[in-house]
Write a structure and sequence with these properties.
There is one protein chain. This protein is mainly α and about 120 residues long. It contains five helices and two strands. The chain has helices at about 5-10, 15-20, 40-55, 60-65, 80-120; strands spanning about 30, 35. Strand 1 and strand 2 form a beta hairpin. The protein is flat, with a radius of gyration of 20 Å. The termini are far apart. Keywords: DNA-binding. This is MerR family transcriptional regulator.
Length: about 120
């Protein structure tokens, strides 16, 4: 499929798809005219990349992780390593800390809203 169709099907901009390719996260063949030609499984790959970015991982970490994941279900492939598990556990702990920090910020905001509401 061409880049425009992949962008439409995944909701990701063509610019982002080119970036993913530059970073080695996504691969495309080239037609005789030089246009990108993505396989069907690129849809799952792009969705997985988006999920990993949303989780706060950076492109270098995603590049290390993707070869160890199956695109269709996100499960581990046969080449997943103990180091990958260690790295991902660290990422999960980082996300847990961020969630706790956000919950604390929300609690402080709730207190301010409550106090400000008394004066209204």
């Amino acid at each position: 499929m061409r880049i425009g169709e992949l962008a439409r099907r995944t909701g990701v901009s063509e610019r982002s798809l080119r970036y993913y390719e530059q970073q080695g996260l996504l691969a495309a063949d080239r037609t005789s005219g030089g246009q990108r030609d993505y396989p069907e499984q690129a849809v799952d790959r792009v969705v997985r990349i988006q999920e990993l970015f949303a989780a706060g991982l950076h492109s270098k970490k995603i590049g290390q992780l993707l070869p160890c994941m199956r695109d269709a279900d996100g499960g581990p492939s046969e080449i997943a390593t103990p180091q990958l598990v260690t790295d991902l556990t660290g990422e999960r702990e980082r996300i847990d800390r961020m969630i706790a920090d956000l919950a604390n910020s929300r609690d402080v905001l709730d207190e301010v809203i409550s106090a400000a509401s008394l004066g209204v």
